[in-house]
Write a structure and sequence with these properties.
Blueprint: E1 2-4, H1 6-18, E2 25-32, E3 38-45, E4 53-57, E5 60-64, H2 69-72, E6 75-82, E7 85-91, E8 97-98, E9 104-106
Parallel strand pairs: 1-6, 2-5
Antiparallel strand pairs: 2-3, 3-9, 4-5, 6-7, 8-9
Length: 107
């Protein structure tokens, strides 16, 4: 469902540890907004809701709410530490258009 690169795994585990959230998982979702219409949401969480879908890739547990699943099928979660910005990035094959910062997209 969602692929997690080695670098994203490393950074997620580091950040969870720094924030005293060891044992948490990555929650990914989509909501309306941003310059392209839909925005990615990412946070560390430890509560699974009945409508959530659970996945695991590269040893990382990823949870997606039911309404976001179709928007995120085949997406790769990576981390960028480069000069153009630092943070988690999404490579979404379903996105027809993305904004320049990569935080929003449209289908």
């Amino acid at each position: 469902m969602i692929k997690v690169t080695d670098f994203a795994k490393k950074k997620a585990l580091e950040l969870m540890h720094e924030e005293n959230k060891d044992g948490f998982f990555i929650r990914v979702g989509v909501e309306g907004g941003g310059c392209s219409g839909l925005m990615y949401q990412l946070k560390f969480d430890n509560e699974i809701k009945p409508e959530d879908k659970e996945f695991e890739d590269n040893g990382v547990k990823v949870v997606v709410d039911k309404k976001s699943v179709l928007y995120l099928v085949g997406t790769t979660l990576d981390f960028s530490g480069g000069l153009n910005g630092k943070g988690f990035i999404f490579s979404n094959p379903n996105a027809a258009r993305t904004c320049g910062c990569g935080e929003s997209f449209s289908l």
